[in-house]
Every structure is written in C-alpha cells, then in structure tokens.
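Need a sequence for this fold. Nothing fancy.
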C-alpha cells in the first residue's frame, strides 16, 4: 500500500515483477478518501518461488533478518509482535498517513 506510486515505466515493470514473484498486490491509497483507494496490481498465486528475486533480496541484511524472524515465529508458534508493524485502527491509520506526508 502506498499513497504515491511513481508511473515511471522502469519502476512499474520492477514493481510488477516483484508483485508477481511474491504473489502480492499493490494498492494505491487515497489519503483523503480511503474507500476510493484502488488496486494497481492484483495479487496472484504461484506454485513455485521466483529464485532470481529471492537471490536479489537475500543480499539485503534487513530482509535476511526478517525472513529469519518469520521462520522462527512459524517454527515456534510464538509470534513476537515487536518485530512487525502495528495494525492501526482506521482513524489512527489515516492520521499516521497524513503525518508521514
């Protein structure tokens, strides 16, 4: 989810590749009217992993740490919430987005 998404052709091609590789969608948030937000890229399901993208991301230490955290949480069944973003109520989310602008 993002309020501002570049329409640069190269950026959109990479965003589309990442969306497809990780089976995630991309939503453009309308900060003034959340109900008018739109799906830019639809999430998809794939049976196999995109190893090229995994290799690119594994070079990032933050991503490696995140994957390790998720793996440990899944293995132990103990979700350590401090390692993830907080889920905000609607009004708090709107205020947070407006402050970030």
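Here you go.
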């Amino acid at each position: 989810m993002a309020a501002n998404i570049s329409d640069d052709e190269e950026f959109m091609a990479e965003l589309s590749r990442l969306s497809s590789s990780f089976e995630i969608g991309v939503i453009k948030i309308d900060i003034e009217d959340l109900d008018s937000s739109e799906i830019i890229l639809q999430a998809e399901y794939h049976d196999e992993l995109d190893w090229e993208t995994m290799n690119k991301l594994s070079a990032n230490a933050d991503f490696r740490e995140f994957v390790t955290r998720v793996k440990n949480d899944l293995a132990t069944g103990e979700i350590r919430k401090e390692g993830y973003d907080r889920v905000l109520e609607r009004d708090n989310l709107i205020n947070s987005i407006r402050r970030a602008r």
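For context: Residues 61-76 form the longest helix (16 residues).
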